[in-house]
Specification:
This protein is α+β, with helices and mostly antiparallel strands. Helix content is 16%, strand content 36%. The strands form two sheets. Strands 3-4-6-7-8-5-11-14-13-12-10-9 form a twelve-stranded antiparallel sheet. Strands 1-2 form a two-stranded antiparallel ribbon.
Length: 299
């Protein structure tokens, strides 16, 4: 007898969350193999206008990881968003085996819809090795995630704007600082920080945790560009242009991670954002960088 599907929990604003929604995201990352080094992915029904950038990056990393010898873990990825993806159309991930060395493996992935490229990624995997170890310390003046409201609570209280809308929430995100989509926020030169984790339990597969972190890494990077200006994100057209991640240490995506994002520069209708992930015990586990469109409306 087949077990009945798990019913999702509901956030304070009525949006689905919890283990059932996390399971759906894990299923979304479990691509179908359609040929040699070729995979097929789909988008959730809740996405109506454009494929979420973190989704296509996470799926592309799954496609690359499926072709890598066992015992090699991704240490970096570099990618470009070429076209906006249509969530109604399946995505084909074409993986190219660039190199299999003694220590490093390199893969390139092209995401295609209707014979047009929408995204490309290069990813490098490494055999675990010993070497020098150091890292920036985690911020110390950050409240615990349990003391902060989740997104559903913010929205139910009228402080959530339309960020993420009614889309299901597999990631529990709790903002330390005032989010950029609130109307009464003011400009700040400080980083934008939030605690986040998968809103359920994941298996022990290291690639899955890395892909979930990749999925979540696109959620607030460009918001840090807007954070430095005295306006709301609702007044800015934003879209990711490229995305890079360096994975320093393993971590679990179903345990709290502090994501600290800051923008060093913006010009020409583009903004550069950088980010750092820290575990709750202070380990720096990943660094991110992204440039994106940050256009103001025409007068």
């Amino acid at each position: 007898m087949t077990a009945a599907p798990r019913r999702p929990d509901v956030a304070a604003d009525g949006v689905a969350r919890g283990q059932a929604v996390v399971d759906e995201l894990v299923a979304l990352l479990d691509l179908d193999e359609t040929g040699p080094d070729t995979f097929r992915g789909t988008s959730p029904e809740s996405r109506r206008f454009r494929v979420y950038g973190g989704q296509v990056a996470g799926q592309a990393l799954v496609a690359a990881g499926r072709t890598v010898p066992a015992g090699r873990w991704v240490h970096s990825l570099h990618s470009y968003f070429i076209r906006g993806g249509d969530p109604r159309v399946p995505i084909e991930y074409r993986t190219e085996r660039i190199r299999d060395g003694r220590s490093f493996t390199t893969r390139r992935v092209l995401a295609v819809q209707d014979d047009e490229a929408i995204f490309m990624m290069s990813a490098s995997f490494q055999v675990p090795q010993e070497g020098l170890v150091h890292a920036e310390p985690a911020p110390t003046d950050v409240p615990a995630p349990e003391s902060l409201p989740d997104l559903g609570t913010r929205r139910a209280a009228g402080h959530g704007g339309d960020w993420l809308g009614r889309a299901e929430r597999p990631i529990d995100i709790r903002f330390v600082d005032e989010p950029v989509w609130t109307a009464d926020r003011v400009a700040t030169q400080e980083p934008l920080r939030a605690w986040l984790r998968a809103d359920g339990t994941l298996s022990d597969d290291p690639l899955l945790h890395t892909c979930l972190l990749t999925w979540a890494s696109d959620m607030m990077l460009l918001s840090s560009v807007v954070a430095r200006h005295d306006l709301s994100a609702t007044q800015v057209q934003m879209a990711s242009l490229d995305h890079a991640i360096w994975f320093h240490q393993p971590c679990r995506a179903d345990e709290w991670l502090l994501y600290e994002c800051w923008s060093p520069a913006a010009s020409g209708g583009r903004g550069l954002a950088t980010g750092r992930f820290f575990t709750r015990d202070g380990r720096m586990v990943a660094t991110t960088a992204q440039e994106g469109l940050t256009r103001l409306p025409r007068r």
